[in-house]
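User: Write out your own:

AI:
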Amino acid sequence: MSIAYSIRQSMEKGSWIRQMFEAGARLKAEHGVENVFDFSLGNPILEPPKDVHANLRKLLENPEPGMHRYMPNGGFSDARSAIADRLSQDTGLAFSAEHVLFTSGAGGAINVALRSLLDPGDEVIIFAPYFAEYIFYIQHHGGKARVAHCGKSFLPDRESLSSCLTARTKAVLLNSPNNPTGVVYPTETIAEICKEIQLAEERHGTKIYLISDEAYRRLTFDSMVPPHVFRHHVRSIVAASHSKDLGLAGERIGYLAMNPLWDEANEFTDAAIFALRTLGFVNAPAIMQRLVAKIQGASVDVSEYESKRDFLYRELTGMGYECVKPTGAFYMFPKSPIQDDLKFMSILQSMLVLTTPGVGFGTPGHFRIAFSVEDDVLDRSLVAFQAGLEQALSAG
């Protein structure tokens, strides 16, 4: 079959993901779903808040004329205004509907932003560990991904970023709270990143855009509040999602928010609307736009994820695993007890535990655990994690 060479290459590079799915399906068929501990996918387990179902019921029982028709590609103006009002309250900046576009989740938002900004050969800097799909998003739109690195605490390294910034840099893509580490970047880190961006702009006479993937912004622990990027860099764009904070991952509703201090925001908005249409998204789901606009103050009970984090972190580190304690999202990124994380993943699979190898996130020697699972699964998996650790260490 003559599929595109670029797609074939991407599929080959991501083949370990397919192997993981295949292994999971095989294990569940052989041993029963209830006996396999699946930590491979970041699928939110908490059900949507009651406000979601209550308001959805109201929308369906009292439909507005034209509720299911096309609307402006960027979304219903009043719904965009509701998002803008919330952003204004949170940031102290004057957001309006023109600064917000509804998208098909944060992934759709990032693709729209990249399509709007990139010319062939433009470079986008990402930080390892990174969400694996970023590489493919950038390639799909003709760009080249350059990987900067993080320190031991998984915070972006300023010197590594500086070395990656060139005259071809078009954007820097951040992700905080981070997938796969669960680390939240503090204000000081955001400020340092933006300072390096601004120095590079002066050095090369270019304009560099900051894209902040904030799909997990409202899922933070230990009273941590992620800083907003808007006051740190004028050409800043936020990709947001309600997949996790409202438990609506399958509904694909998110938005792009442009910095109201950016004097060229209108030009970017026009480009993003064009990209929405021509990439085939056309518009975000109409009912979901109406719904999330009415419940901007609602959220799942984040304390449940925090409790799972506390339990798993305490138990794994007590066994001897090394791990940076996550402060957001629902991921943990321990160090593999052996350098070959793919080999360790195989050991865990033999214990009926499914995890994701760090090599897929640009950071070999680690593995990701998505702890958005039932407490019973966490509890029963501990014996397997202990046995996997002991087997790996004994094998050298």
